[in-house]
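Render this sequence as a predicted structure.
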Amino acid sequence: MYNPFVRYDAGRSTAKTTALSLPFFEDFDGYDIIPDTTRWTGRQVYVNNTMCYNPVSRGCATFDALSQYGMPYDTTNPYITRYADSLTSKSIDLSSYNPGDSLYLSFVYQPGGNGFLPDRYDSLMLYFKPRTGAVWKKVWGISDTVNHDFFQAMIPVTDTSFFHADFQFRFVNKASIGINDDIWNVDYIQLAAGRNRNDTMINDVAFVQDPSPLLGDYTSMPYRQYIAASGSERAVSIGSAIRNNFTTAQSTSGTGFIATDNSGSVLTTASTGSKTIGGRSTTTVSTGTYSATPSAGINDRISFGHTFWMNPVSGDNHRNNDTITGSQVFDNYLAYDDGTAEMSYYLNLFPTLPGKLAIEHHLNKPDTLRGVAIYFGRQVPTASYKYVSLMVYESIAYGGSTTDKVLYQLDNQQPRYRDTINHFWIYKFDKPVLLPAGTFYIGTTQPALSGSDSLYFGLDRNRKTGNHAYFNVLNVWNASTVDGAIMIRPLLGQDIIPSSVEELSHTENTFKVYPNPASATLQVAIRLQRAAVYSILDIAGKTVATGTLQPDEPAVDISYLQPGSYVLTVSPANQVPLTTHFQKL
């Protein structure tokens, strides 16, 4: 999974916070991409509603091989397995409890989901924090290489060392860097007293699927293109899905839908009726689409809010997920994707032939093509030194056409990455391309003998209809059979501002440590203009040392550390932190 979002740390507070009390519950039902700071410390996991498959409720926390800045935890070595993401609770006061109170921590977990499966060397682990000064204890772990629905784990809290005022628990995953990205999804975390190992019921009826788009094929397009043929562009219906986690059938007394415009004005409402849902099963809810004219101009960015809701079900323990909200965006691009990449797509090139990719699009009226936005997936080692040509075709030699009709070609472009909310890099054409109404293709060409066969493009796996994608690796175009949308978007209309090299977080900086393993001193190969702060974390995610690297002396004393595995993070001024793994002898 190539995370489309970046969660920057706004700084840590040194003030002592009040410990939480039981019961502790987390459903990840918010719409922020970082964990709720009232319950969790740190920002490494990605909170989302796209990575999970057959979820128990809206939202989950995803563990992968990328840091909170969207960077691989090791940027140079794709063949290592190391500790990666962690999720740590805030302090919980257990000082008034004892083993006789029957405390259990439960959660549901899923390997892979809509992303890549972990391999046999990867795992998801759970640690508990004993009394102050003691080493965190591993209480649970799993290695699983089969994609399946969420499983539930029940962990008893029985060790007397856990019953103190500063108890915490921490999930950690181990990932194979650069292999398959090793997705683990975690949800529905509960810690409470008076439970037992058979207390596995989740008494909750919850929305689990984001509202589908108003559009039938595209997920987004310019509003002027939409109104030129709104009847054919609209979907038949807008839908969502509801999961009943009770073991018995449950009925809602009513469900409904509401759409609003940019200003919050209501565009339409609909009753979608009551629903009876079988035990531990999922049903769909839908309504017809609607026609509306926004107050904004047809060339402006326009967003319609879509919300499904249901009346509470008797005995439902959690009501926040009784509504679910999404949006229909009209902007200056054409998109089949929803802006999130669960996997990556790449071409296996024949060594002496170029590799071509083309995505089919249509226009309802003439327009001006200004450039293209591409979501390149992170890979190890970086692909930023490779080259690619950006292509615009009137047609390709497929389905009756005998030749490729090229309208525009921009050569010598390099894959770039943005540590921003959408990770697309914007390439501006050196001249606008005037397009008539009808079909055209946006694509890329990777040159022969370039070693570019592993160039990764973001792949939105949640798209269920046709992907409109074609590839050519043996001088013949073929329709792609891969499910999902390849994240390449044509940019239309008014002039655009391209992404610039200056926007790159300096994560392409050379960053290596040697010798590795080391016993006394760790040399750090990094280009520094000024002093940089570093920190060393143990495998449980605890900071064991901090210090400063000088530009003329980039070395770290590790002689005092116990033998084992550690993580070194260097934070150059005004740059994204860099992270790597080392072994202390």
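Summary. The first strand starts at residue 24 and ends at 26. The two ends are 33 Å apart (CA to CA).
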